[in-house]
Design a protein that fits this description.
The longest helix has 19 residues. β1 and β2 form a beta hairpin. The protein is built from three helices and nine strands. The chain has a single domain, classed as Roll (Transcriptional Co-activator pc4, Chain A). The protein is α+β, with helices and mostly antiparallel strands and about 150 residues long. Strands 1, 2, 3, 4 and 5 form a five-stranded antiparallel sheet that branches. A four-stranded antiparallel sheet has the order 6-7-8-9.
Length: about 150
């Protein structure tokens, strides 16, 4: 988890029409989560004032990692937010050398293709988040994902 005064672990991904920010965050109950923010392009910049915010819990991060690591083709998490109307969908598109991400809520969606370098960063960050959520080191989390969750999510 992020201590007061520390810079959170995370990174941005920019597409031609949208942007995403992934970072290690904390839920209202102070549990570690993978926080995902997304916004669309507005003029020459990105409209971060009108962003979608979504947090992935310890029940969802393993599924996301299975997709990022190529163990499954896609990942989807729905019914997020106070109104339970936000979602995230990732799809592996190896023919295009990317993972396509769609972050959405009613009437608004952010769509960003992630290049291999960004996918690598998401995998590394996701393992750090899962490690914080479970108390296992990242290598153990990866071994468990490959041996169990990967086959169960597919």
């Amino acid at each position: 988890m992020v201590e007061q005064g520390e810079k959170p672990l995370g990174f941005h991904v920019y597409g031609s029409n949208g942007a995403l920010k992934f970072e290690l965050g904390s839920s209202e109950a102070q549990a570690p989560v993978l926080s995902v923010d997304g916004c669309n392009k507005a003029g020459t910049g990105f409209d971060w004032g009108n962003k979608i915010i979504l947090q992935l819990s310890d029940r969802e991060v393993p599924g996301l990692l299975c997709c990022v690591l190529g163990l499954t083709v896609e990942f989807e998490a729905r019914n997020h937010g106070a109104k339970r109307n936000k979602s995230i969908h990732l799809v592996n598109q190896p023919a295009h050398r990317r993972i396509y991400v769609k972050l959405s809520q009613p009437e608004y969606a952010v769509k960003v293709p992630m290049t291999p370098d960004a996918v690598f960063k998401l995998g590394a960050l996701g393992l750090q988040v899962l490690s914080a959520q479970t108390g296992f080191d990242a290598a153990t989390c990866l071994a468990i994902l490959r041996g169990t969750a990967g086959r169960l999510y597919s």
